[in-house]
């Protein structure tokens, strides 16, 4: 079937089996490799991206649901060269180690901050349940709080 | 323009190293099976500095200067999160006299000739390359200066160098400009190295060189690799312990859409298709037949891992611990166990392979480029030089990628279809075909003297294999060593002021693959020994920190251990009392000569153990990058906590379970301590191990805290309170 | 499959169970046998018998797993707390960035073993069934304070037409590819039982 959606702002049309996981479409057909395969069972969160601004685990999301939607992957999280506050915070705290799970975490965090701009530690515990084997959780928590600060600072600086 | 590739040349240094090893092995086979020799070797291995096993006398294998004045560092070590790329860049930049921004670290393909003969593992990358890489970089700098002096018509000694720019009397040449006109390099004697205190990058918390890429989703991991015309493969893997492949009915898979070819080999069956999905679905349609001899259960495995069964080797002996403990009356005895652990690294194993015209190219995540190359070459009947292994960033290593049959399988599939093939494990296969951390059993015995000091202590440990059976490890070493070096890592008594102490390692061969898991035996051995030390301290009526200090010997290792113990206690504000429902637990270990001490602050919330804060003092010697030393401590502490508190594989009806994250419970954000305080001491004049030593103390530190809260001594991992 | 076909299949299955003591292949979860008291066809059921039959379904884990009495969905045949500590959230659809729809879509995903149906979510707290007796569940179900102000007719509609409820008979496979256990009563029998019970005045037995 033909499926059309916007990905990172680009209109895209594909001829694909509608039951194909969105993850494989993004990685293998659109060559956006920042979104990772971890388990294929929606258990680890490495494949997290945004569909209409919401966090979605794309390994378990059939591409047919994406029809007419706006998809954002880690490659589209920044605004051109201007990194997203989550990415800026990740840089400041030097979070990544192996880096494999980090795009999923950053996408989940960006989705969290768009719903809860100033998350408490408990909000972070309840919302961010992805798996990181290097166990960079300590810096991630700091980076999430830092990202919230950067985001609110940006909001203040924006002309209303 | 790039530097011309050097021709292969005979390396004298390599020859010397190799012949020494050869002679050693020959002597070993004859003499070293004697108990005393085995103990000596064990002691030597325990404190040895493992040398780098590769070429270190040809700077052009390591460095390539580009026209825009960038230096490409061809790293034979792989980056799996441990920060090695950053450390190597810092070390090279300081001796090369370039800014760290000018250095770009890449994984050296084996075709480059810069090959690590052993592995990236054992926390040895920075420590083993510290001296050779500085010498290589300094030599490269001098080579550039010599060429510049020719081009500027002056003496090399008169030149000044800064940020990759050579200057003399107002004239300047960048490194990039210099290499453009070089036809033949002159390689000087190794120049004197700079004083460490003058380094601009070494010792500083430089941001990781891969940071920006990893934040924008750019780095290529094995699974991100692709080649033109690439197809997708899948291999049928056994789900049962000890299964051998008999055959397969592939008729329905052959007819499935997207299937290009079903590949039947004597030892496996696989399928190649036009997409990942098609390959995976066709694989599931293949009915493979396996032969199994036994329906293993967890109880069978537990019954095997028992001190007293298998082959014992005394790996440490001072005084007469056994005789004393067999005859004294007030002997304290305790047993401990640890479960089977999975690597559970986030990126599954696999490879992209392209085999054509008697050449093979393999792009993948591997910790053993040289072994991978050999195994692929052997299977395809090629010379190793005809196989090019191109390593990528690793989506976690932790020892899981020290075995790479996945490379061979991808290569076989590619050869069968004459096109590039990408073939990966799915997550279920990854869990069921892991090379697990072996389960362990420990028996500790100790007796105190009238002053409340340890008179004698003994550690008996039983473990599945870690190093034995690995293709990385020469078979001859097994009879020589007798005990598996990996299994007893961290198993020796480190308090050498105790007059009588002894460690015995019992080897058990399990029916499934067990192997290297970050820090090897350290996690379980330290849990057992340091929990026991806590028991002895309480029995002696002494403060556990003071008690440990009383038993440390007066030598360099003792000094370094004493200092980390004191530093951790000081920084944590150590108090052996329960305050507001929280207790502290203390533990320390020495691994690969790096001592580490930790204090865990713990409470019990809703019937579960909650770790609030961990204070960690570590002495790796020179901290090339203090920020990454911290990062490794933080990660190790939480990974160790995860293994100590949650993780466990079990065996049911011949299957290793569970096969997915969640049921294989690991620490998540909510479980990790909110505070981790790391103190770095540098009581040695070279960098030592960092990536594994901090995994040692955490299990015992948590368990010792729990004892103070509940009065219950937890003796089994994962820690569970009644 | 047409509804009539399904009903026919369900009827045959029931007949098979009763007459032949039907045994199922080992690879599938066993189809539980119906209780003795239901040895009659649904058409002949008294409202009391219909209640029993309906409750066989409503107390099954396929239903109760999403009617927890706390803030954690349950999952699996052993009704363990949902992996990763997934939570109810303010509107029963999960928390801000970990919504049910982060993983669950409008259909089962049999590649991943992730179940799905329209409006995948937890029943509201007031509709908690976990740990309740059959009588308590029935009372709660009929209480407008708990059931979102539904009339009996609307409740029957929810119980017999709502896709999320009917998902119980098409529960798909789990992460290991193993089919999830279905409720012990075929769907058509269950629907009929709910309607018979309601038509008979929705009696709740004394227990």
From TrEMBL, chain A:
Pfam families: Fer2, Fer2_2. The keyword Iron applies. It comes from the Bacteria. GO terms for molecular function: 2 iron, 2 sulfur cluster binding; metal ion binding; oxidoreductase activity. Residues 1-77 form the 2Fe-2S ferredoxin-type domain. InterPro entries: 2Fe-2S-bd, 2Fe-2S-bd_dom_sf, 2Fe-2S_ferredoxin-like_sf, 2Fe-2S_ferredoxin-type, 2Fe2S_fd_BS, Beta-grasp_dom_sf, Diverse_Oxidoreductases. CDD domains: fer2 (cd00207). Keywords: 2Fe-2S, Iron, Iron-sulfur, Metal-binding, Oxidoreductase. This is Oxidoreductase. It comes from Phaeodactylibacter xiamenensis.
From TrEMBL, chain B:
One of its GO terms (molecular function) is oxidoreductase activity. Pfam families: MoCoBD_1 (PF02738), MoCoBD_2 (PF20256). Residues 216-294 form the Aldehyde oxidase/xanthine dehydrogenase a/b hammerhead domain. InterPro entries: Ald_Oxase/Xan_DH_a/b, AldOxase/xan_DH_MoCoBD1, AldOxase/xan_DH_MoCoBD2, AldOxase/xan_DH_Mopterin-bd_sf, N-heterocyclic_Hydroxylase, OxRdtase_Mopterin-bd_su_IorB, TAT_signal. This is Xanthine dehydrogenase.
TrEMBL record, chain C:
It comes from Phaeodactylibacter xiamenensis. This is Uncharacterized protein. SUPFAM superfamilies: Multiheme cytochromes.
